Amino acid sequence: MSREFNVVIEKDADGWFVASVPALPGCHTQAKSLDALMERVAEAIELCLEVEGEDFEPLAFVGVQRVSVAA
Description:
By secondary structure, the chain is of the alpha+beta class. The chain has one helix at about 35-50; strands spanning about 10, 15-20, 30.
């Protein structure tokens, strides 16, 4: 069975790409290149699903919103 997940990708101050999967709390990884990141996040998703079990229902991804605040 194939599932699709939204992945949020950010770049940290040291140049690493960081991926998190909003539908799977605690599911995240990092890598120096986007290609490596995509491989690693697929592995992380598989592991998270394995731990959660067959009856796990992922959280629904709603979206990303930009918020402006005075600093």
